[in-house]
Amino acid sequence: MAVSCDRLVRNFKRNGIRVHIIHFTNRKKKFSTQTVVKGTYSAVPIESSEEFTLSLAAEFVQQLPFLDTLSYIGIFGGNLPINLGPVLSKWIHKPLITFIRGNDFDEGIFSKKRGHVLYALENSRYVFTVTKEKREKIDSLVSHNNTYFTQNGINTAYWKPAKSHFENIEQLKKSFNSKIPIAFIGQLKAKKGIVNFVETFAKFPYKNDFVLCLIGDVSDETKTYILDLDINVQFFSFANQNELILFYNAIDIVAIPSFYDGMPNVLLEAAATKNMVIGANVGGIKDVISDKKDGFLYNPFQPNELLDVLLQIHKMSPSEKERMSEALFQKIKTDYTEEIEISNYINILKP
């Protein structure tokens, strides 16, 4: 979510729009505001209780000097922004924009705080979501018709390896011991379906031809469980973009087995580095992938569908794999650019 937020802020500014960031953080203990390029950044410390945090934040924000210059209040992220945003919107008389990505809706709507989510959605001038599925769900819950599907974007040039990467990429490839790597990348939480994928993979008859690479945050309990399975597996710590370029260009397949999701940045990054994608048929994954044309989709609740996908991949020739990954790369390079992404927002928001 942070990657998407940073990308949108950067591209709004590139298009001449001033953006003032209000950031809830537990890394700072005092309220502060500093001027940045085309806007400001304000740190709002997270206090001992949510109510105290929000009450102080509301008072702080209402005293900021630039409020009269605002066109909108936008909320992006978890419960604190979703709780504060619609109230501030009414108090300072500025229309609300709610940006929905993934868990903020998928889990928020079923939590004890669903009222905050529904109140924000109902009182938004615009709701932007990165999946068609979420747009339909939100439309059924609110009385307005102001929900828009706005896909994520990526600059594929940022993911092209430099000459300085080549040696490390080759070393990574050698570490796979001639086995085909399937990678899982990011914060590998329960909702990402990693355990279910791995359990099913352990039953795959050709599993020894592959190695699973888990790149990111994995709980100790999950790691211990996976290590007890009869599979080839490697764990890597969470990586920054420079390190991820190495992984993406050393592996062959990226798996995204989420039970529910937005439009994962990992999906676009995998496509930008010409990896084949195995994705659960959910959320924004199914908005991007055309099954068996530029990737594979499967029902994450049906293990046999995943086994069938794995078997199809095992039977594919190198040229068939290359054609599929190239097709996804061309789709992303053409239709999922940062320029298209930000223009979708601006065209809707402009008066």
TrEMBL record:
Organism superkingdom: Bacteria
Residue span(s) of domain Glycosyl transferase family: 175-326
InterPro entries xref list: Glyco_trans_1, Glycosyltransferase_grp1
SUPFAM superfamilies from the UniProt entry: UDP-Glycosyltransferase/glycogen phosphorylase (SSF53756)
Record-given protein name: Glycosyltransferase involved in cell wall bisynthesis
Organism this protein belongs to: Zobellia uliginosa
